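agent> Task received from the user: take the single chain below, predict its 3D structure, and emit structure tokens. No templates, no multimer pairing.
agent> Plan: (1) validate residues, (2) run structure prediction, (3) serialize to tokens, (4) report one or two observations.
agent> Step 1 OK, no nonstandard residues flagged.
tool_call: predict_structure(input=
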Amino acid sequence: MTGTNKKALIIAVIMVVWFCGSAIAAGDYHVDSSVYLKDFLYRLLNFSIVVAILYYFLNKPIRTALTGRRDDIEKALEEAKNAKAEAEAKFAEYDKKLAEATEEIAAITAAIRKEAELEKQKIVDNAREQAAKIEQDAEKAAALEVAKARQSLQQEATQLAVSIAEDMLKKNFTKDDDSRLIDEYMQKVGELH
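)
tool_result: status=success, residues=193
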């Protein structure tokens, strides 16, 4: 039986009971007390039949509806418990991650401080080494300047000797000598490759 059929049956039973009661109440007749007892018993029987019919037709749908509602409430409660458990688990997880992050930050800070101290010491040591190196380089630079001055004098003497040799070659060098040197040079380059 569908929900609309059940509703129609309930409305029909209520209307029949109401109209029967109205029809009896509208009647203007006079009866003795035994009739009242009989009438009361008929009414009681009629009421019992109506209650039995209503119980027969409505017991299962009401029980099903109440059972369904109870199941829905139990399901909603179970879902709420699960959601609460998940939320508590996530809270615990985030709380743990926060604690781990705090510990990690403290460890990183300590490591950075230690590294900064080491870097400071390296810089001081490096500065001392640089100072010693600069002092040595200054001594070497002075020695190099003396050596450069000597070398410069030697180069000037060499250039002067080359210049004199060029002048002498220009005076004594002919076109035949020039062609012969070019040919020798070309032959040596060809042998190399």
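agent> Step 4: summary for the user.
Residues 21 and 166 are 153 Å apart (CA to CA).
agent> Done.
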